[in-house]
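PROTEIN DESIGN WORKSHEET
SECTION A - STRUCTURE
LENGTH: 381
TOKENS:
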């Protein structure tokens, strides 16, 4: 197919759009991916810099880092990025620079506390309520109101550090069963104080982090959230509640929402759980689209980033043209092909080669993430 025709077919996918005041050169986002490539204790080193260099050269408009700890107790692996004190700043500045060396590529930092699913050898897991976690076998400690305000401060301070490092925006990790998602779920939040009991109270931690960060940094630093929309366990969060939470967050001023779902325990409830569903056929693609369709009309000017099984550029283009999302976001496809956006832009619009087999998830637990399928194919040829 001629390049001019392809560019017409993918016109919206490769058109610029803003998140807050920051312009992204196209609608393609690299969804947050724990690469297991930081140095010990979460410092930025050459391994992770090289990984981001390759990604930034591949044509993605906005890269979101892997989940980055806001506190020494916040991480699940010593090789997960951290930015909880100033000793981490110089490394993150190098990471930002390597990405910004590529024309118009933007970098967001995703910040996290592992909460109920924490398995830190020195710090016990914490959560809004002490509900035993069935995959780790641990019962989290219930946070006091004072401790919650302390964690809000830590999220804000990490966002301020990220701004000082040169990041273009921040994404709060409020999904997949980690701390912030524990607050928005009736399965893990049984509180009856200011942080639980009503939908407004469940959303309060996210509203507080937003307000305190915006007060410090203003609108020049967009604040976004990856939001839990389904827990996929009996008695867990469902879309009727999470869509109201999304509405509250949009009214608060969040610049973008990336709906996602699933917790560790969903693996016990389903064979093919969120957030990383295996995709057997094209019908399985874009598996958060029905969620996006429900949330998009409720969030006004807040941008919607659609993640989950996106592989086909023509269907991505249609989703954007139908105004069901403002951006599309990919994780596993970019592990296989970090240059996928350039491949599409240069005329090869066949779907992503990623088979969604989830082998990357398995290797990522033990060492640097890579695509197992691709490596096996390379060995054969
Ligand atoms: C290896 C791996 C690491 C991931 N790390 C993160 C992470 O740090 N933060 C996050 O929010 N989601 C993480 N995810 C989930 C992805 O961002 C994404 O939501 C999910 O893989 C679905 O998108 P996909 O179909 O494009 O892969 C990870 C997924 C994989 C496979």
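SECTION B - SEQUENCE
RESIDUE ASSIGNMENT:
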């Amino acid at each position: 197919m001629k390049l001019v025709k392809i560019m017409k077919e993918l016109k919206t996918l490769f058109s610029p759009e803003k998140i807050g005041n920051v312009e992204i050169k196209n609608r393609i986002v690299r969804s947050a991916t724990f690469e297991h490539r930081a140095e010990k204790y979460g410092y930025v080193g050459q391994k992770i810099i090289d990984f981001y260099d390759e990604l930034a050269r591949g044509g993605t408009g906005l890269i979101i880092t892997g989940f980055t700890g806001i506190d020494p107790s916040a991480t699940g692996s010593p090789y997960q990025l951290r930015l909880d004190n100033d000793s981490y700043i110089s490394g993150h500045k190098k990471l930002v620079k390597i990405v910004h060396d590529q024309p118009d590529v933007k970098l967001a930092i995703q910040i996290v506390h592992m909460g109920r699913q924490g398995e830190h050898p020195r710090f016990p897991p914490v959560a809004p309520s002490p509900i035993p976690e069935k995959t780790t076998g641990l019962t989290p400690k219930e946070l006091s109101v004072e401790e919650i305000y302390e964690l809000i401060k830590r999220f804000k301070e990490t966002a301020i550090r990220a701004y000082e490092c040169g990041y273009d925006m921040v994404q709060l990790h409020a999904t997949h069963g980690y701390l912030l998602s524990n607050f928005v779920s009736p399965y893990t939040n049984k509180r009856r104080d200011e942080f639980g009991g009503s939908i407004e109270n469940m959303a309060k931690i996210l509203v507080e982090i937003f307000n305190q960060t915006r007060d410090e940094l203003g609108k020049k630093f967009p604040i976004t959230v990856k939001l839990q929309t389904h827990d996929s366990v009996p008695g867990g969060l469902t879309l009727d509640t999470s869509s109201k939470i999304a509405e509250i967050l949009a009214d608060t001023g969040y610049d973008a929402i990336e709906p996602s779902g699933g917790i560790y325990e969903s693996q016990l409830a389903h064979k093919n759980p969120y957030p990383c569903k295996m995709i057997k056929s094209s019908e399985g693609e874009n598996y958060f689209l029905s969620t996006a369709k429900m949330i998009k009309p409720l969030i006004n000017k807040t941008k919607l980033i659609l993640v989950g099984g996106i592989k086909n550029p023509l269907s991505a283009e249609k989703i954007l043209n139908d105004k069901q999302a403002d951006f599309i976001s990919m994780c596993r496809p970019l592990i296989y092909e970090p240059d996928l956006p350039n491949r599409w832009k240069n005329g090869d619009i066949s779907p992503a080669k990623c088979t969604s087999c989830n082998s990357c998830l398995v290797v990522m637990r033990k060492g640097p993430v890579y695509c197992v399928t691709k490596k096996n194919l390379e060995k054969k040829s």
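SECTION C - NOTES
The CA atoms of residues 169 and 221 lie 5 Å apart.
The first helix runs from residue 3 to 9.
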